[in-house]
Specification:
The protein has about 180 residues and is of the alpha+beta class. It has two domains: about 55 residues; about 80 residues, Beta Barrel (OB fold (Dihydrolipoamide Acetyltransferase, E2P)). It has four helices and five strands, in the order H-H-E-E-E-H-E-E-H. The chain has a five-stranded antiparallel β-sheet with strand order 3-2-1-4-5. Helix 2 packs antiparallel against helix 4. The longest helix has about 35 residues.
Length: about 180
């Protein structure tokens, strides 16, 4: 007995306006570009945070690249910064509060120049004029650091690590949304 012929269903192509308004169009034109922009923004931010962590590791002695020299403290001062935009030749300070400084080579601690550093209060309290400190320079930079500098404190290190972790998580999520199938 011969098999009956099966009928093939006839489907018509949907109008163009229906296919344009489907979710794939939304995904490709809206979600994907926004995700790529977010990914690029977080990769850009990593370009600032990772070098700071690298410098911190060099200053703390965890990575090579820092040169250490001894200096005798010639001045010590603290200063209250009330102005949110106080500026020196090297830096613009975006914070306010009391800053604790020491200097060497006869330079005034409150003046401008390369032979001074900002310290944490507890380290500053322990130092006296005439004490010797380790001064750290990174590569060819003229900026001086100490292991008691505010910029390499445990609090700053923790914040920087958390920021990098958040940046990596967001960048990973962006990559996930870019690479997954658009269903």
């Amino acid at each position: 007995m011969p098999k009956p012929k099966q009928s093939i269903p006839v489907t018509s192509k949907p109008p163009l306006w229906e296919s344009v308004l489907d979710k794939h169009f939304f995904t490709l034109l809206i979600r994907l570009p926004l995700t790529i922009i977010a990914l690029l923004a977080f990769v850009f931010l990593l370009g600032f945070t990772l070098p700071k962590l690298y410098k911190t590791a060099q200053i703390r002695g965890w990575l090579p690249g820092a040169s250490v020299s001894q200096a005798v403290i010639t001045d010590k001062a603290s200063e209250k910064w009330r102005d949110m935009g106080a500026t020196t030749r090297r830096n613009t300070y975006l914070s306010y509060g009391t800053h604790y400084l020491v200097s060497w080579n006869g330079q005034a601690a409150l003046g401008e120049g390369r032979d001074r550093v900002f310290l944490q209060k507890d380290a500053w309290d322990k130092l006296k004029i005439g004490d010797t400190i380790d001064v750290i320079y990174l590569g060819s930079s003229e900026r001086a650091y100490t292991r008691a500098s505010v910029s390499v404190s445990n609090g700053n290190l923790l914040i920087d690590l958390l920021v990098v972790l958040a940046e990596l998580i967001v960048a990973g999520l962006c990559l996930y949304f870019i690479l997954r199938r658009f269903d």
